[in-house]
Design a protein that fits this description.
Among the domains are: about 75-285, Transferase(Phosphotransferase), domain 1; about 330-345 and about 360-385 and about 440-453, no CATH class. It is about 30% helix and about 15% strand. The chain has helices at about 30-45, 80-90, 95-110, 175, 185-200, 210-220, 225, 235-240, 255-270, 275-285, 285-295, 320, 360-370, and strands spanning about 1-10, 15-25, 55-60, 65-70, 75, 135, 140-145, 310, 380, 390, 440-445, 450. The strands form four sheets. The protein has a five-stranded antiparallel β-sheet with strand order 1-2-4-3-8. Strands 5-6-7 form a three-stranded antiparallel β-sheet. The N and C termini lie far apart (about 70 Å).
């Protein structure tokens, strides 16, 4: 789709920075839908601020041509790394595979939970998670790139029902069937990449694309242990759960995949760090690194200065899609729906995923969680057997009947009552160590009060 250049630019302080420039091929620049797809890619990627997502700086038109300027990652894509593994007939070591997949899972979770400047969810689905779109730098950084066919609420090019986009070999079953996708489709594709890193072969192969679609649809593959018996069963179980055909049985978020991969890595190689992956890649491509350094000494600088500095094609909707890094805030366990509203499963809801939650409910919950200041809230430990929480209802006080005026009389002060004998009262409940297992709740005293009855 494009010619790719390594280019140099300078910041306000005069420091040089390398960038990658993709110049769209001339015959594709005449396709309006293709150009709009590139605009969508640039918009989506420019919104995402994450250490594992390759940045897009600009998508512009200059001299009648289109180009994308993006972050330059000095390294190799995972597809090239896997080709080298196949040449050496050795799979990628499990610790490196777990680290790469964990970094990609972190990037996917950031994309899946991204919101715009008005805190509206973008609902990004990458749809093309594959080894060629995962770049590993010579220092061990892992970057997910190419959101060219990603689906988001700000995309203007709509995919027709039944039209398949992406690399068939790494698709999810629902994607191969042309169905509506959610973020769990990317989880399946990540599982396919993890499988290939552990075995050197993709989980689904066929002699033609139609047979390949059928295999992906059925999600049947050879167990990893059959191909590489030395694979730790813990990481094989993670890959198997990612590759489950049923979306309900799959990992529900990329964050869950990342957590399990990080836990495996801590147990398998406790002292693992990014530098280990960097050394592995540098050792595998030592000859290529030397050749690339020589190429950097050759560059072209033109003396012709043009007045056409280009038109930025992704700045027009800056107010609607201005980048705003917002951490993901899941709904706290045990929070009553009365704080937010109904569950969103009633008439008129848009629960497209069948999980009992629509977009309106999720947005209201997100706003309520983000606006609540937990540090100034008052807390109480509740004895569930004595107290119950209920919403405060404001009722008017009962009318007081008028009293007739009293005549003033002078009388002696009332006698002081004798002291009452002390009675044995019930001691407060002793929770002991069980207090750590008691349920606690943060109370907004402006809206709730304990029922003392």
């Amino acid at each position: 789709m494009a010619e790719i250049y390594r280019a140099k630019t300078f910041d306000a302080q005069g420091h040089a920075h390398l960038v990658a420039v993709k110049r769209v091929l001339a015959h594709l620049a005449e396709d309006d839908d293709f150009i709009q797809m590139l605009v969508d890619e640039a918009k989506i990627a420019s919104l995402l601020r994450h250490g594992n997502i390759a940045r897009v700086y600009e998508f512009a038109r200059a001299h009648g041509e289109y180009f994308i300027a993006m972050e330059h990652v000095d390294g190799k894509d995972t597809r090239t790394i896997l080709e080298r593994c196949r040449q050496k007939k050795k799979p990628m070591p499990p610790e490196h595979a777990a680290y790469v997949a964990g970094e990609v899972a972190s990037a996917l979770h950031a994309a899946h939970t991204a919101v715009d400047s008005k805190r509206r969810p973008l609902r990004i689905v990458h749809r093309d998670v594959s080894p060629s779109n995962i770049i590993v730098s010579y220092t061990g950084e892992v970057k997910l790139c190419d959101f060219g066919i990603a689906k988001a609420t700000l995309s203007k090019v709509n995919t027709k029902t039944g039209v398949i986009k992406g690399k068939v070999k790494y698709m999810s079953p629902e994607q191969a069937l042309g169905r509506k996708l959610d973020h769990r489709s990317d989880v399946f594709s990540l599982g396919s990449c993890l499988y290939e890193m552990l075995t050197r072969v993709p989980p689904f192969t066929a002699s033609n694309e139609m047979d390949l679609l059928i295999k992906v649809r059925d999600a049947k593959y050879r167990p990893i242990a059959d191909l590489v018996p030395s694979t730790p069963p813990e990481i094989e179980a993670i890959a198997d759960r990612c590759l489950t055909r049923s979306r309900a049985q799959r990992y529900q978020t990329a964050a869950e995949v990342e957590a399990d991969l990080r836990a495996f890595l801590r147990r398998y190689v406790p002292n693992y760090s990014r530098s280990h992956l960097g050394r592995y890649v540098r050792k595998a491509f030592a000859a290529e690194i030397e050749r690339e350094l020589r190429m950097l000494e050759e560059y072209v600088v033109t003396d012709d200065v043009s007045d056409d500095v280009g038109v930025n094609l992704i700045a027009r909707d800056a107010e609607d899609v201005a980048p705003m890094p917002v951490p993901f805030q899941p709904r706290p366990a045990g929070t009553a729906d009365v704080l937010i509203g109904d569950g969103g499963t009633g008439p008129g809801s848009d629960d497209t995923d069948g999980d009992g939650e629509n977009s309106t409910t999720a947005e209201r919950r997100q706003q309520a969680v983000s606006s609540f200041d937990v540090h100034v809230a008052q807390t109480q430990i509740l004895d569930p057997g004595r107290h119950a929480m209920r919403p405060r209802t404001r009722t008017a006080p009962p009318p007081v009947p008028p009293q007739p005026p009293r005549a003033r009389t002078t009388s002696a002060p009332p006698p002081i009552p004798p002291p009452r004998a002390r009675t044995r009262t019930q001691p407060p409940p002793d929770f002991g160590d069980d207090i750590h297992r008691e349920e606690t709740m943060i109370l907004d005293r402006g809206r709730f009060r304990p029922n003392r009855g």
